Amino acid sequence: MKISKRKVVIVGCGLVGSSTAFSLVTQGICDEILMIDINKEKALGEVLDLRDSIQYLSHNVKVKVGTYADCSDADIVVITAGAPPKKGESRLDTLEMGIKICKSIVEPIMSSGFDGIFVVISNPVDIMAYYVYKLSGLPKNQVIGTGTALDSARLKNFIAQIVNVDPRSVHAYSMGEHGDSQMIPWSTVTIEGKQFDDVIQDNKALVGDVSLDELVMKTVKGGWEIYNRKGTTCYGIASTCAGIIKTIFQDENKIIPVSTLLEGEYGETEVFAGVPTILNRNGATDVLEIHMTDNELKRFKDSATLIKSYIKKIEELKI
Ligand code: NAD
Q: Which helix (H) or strand (E) holds 302?
């Protein structure tokens, strides 16, 4: 008899990778975590620290330093190697370095016989996820970028603060690029089914004047507000990634706005972009096509076009 274990490999043990591992460990989302980093001592340090947390948790998770050969029977490989953009750089500015790092990771993982699901965090995440999809040759459902899942969480927080409800009662997506061109289809935003616009109109005394443009700006700049103060962002993305992995392992069919390959949805092809996606144990199984206004659709397509222009640059890099 064989009971299969939920095995996750995390490549890149920096702040994002280690926070993701901690989130997985504390929530008991998997049974085994292997940590890989070009800096082997850093990987070992994180492993030893994570092991020390087990005693006071309600479950055991085996945490080890891993190798790419260990990916052969992994269920999920999280790619978070790379370095965040420096002050004044956009996420897109890290493309060349990110692609080089990604190639050095994905090729040995595929040589191991890996046939699980990649969850890509490294920026620029939509382009990196597309690259992992192409390089790995895996079916599209097996490559997921975290996309606008984190931006959507930020957006929900901002809306929740305005209307004074739990952010989990806000239904809102930021879509397109995990970057400056992302857009929010306001016509689809609801507070438990009530249109956000109606909530604003019916509660003028409570909420005052709400600027949607300002909310878009806050969502786009949300990461930088954190980065400029603490030099990194890690907990939000760690929780987002752990949430994606939990959805996969528990076969939840939960809809999360991750970056996935579009094959005609929203009129787009050959691009990874943040769209509401059904996630289950097969990975990204289906895209939810929400009805947007013409103007919203145009802004989504503009964002997809920008991502595509950077995808083209990968070929020019000749890596
Ligand atoms: P970090 O500098 O703290 O850690 C990066 C780690 O990657 C380091 O430990 C480094 O040694 C390792 N690394 C570098 N090259 C490697 C290679 N070839 N093989 C294995 N490991 C390698 O950076 P961080 O703050 O953890 O951020 C990591 C990535 O996550 C960045 O690309 C950042 O922009 C991205 N990020 C994405 C989101 C999102 O929403 N998608 C959010 C936050 C950060």
A: helix 294-317
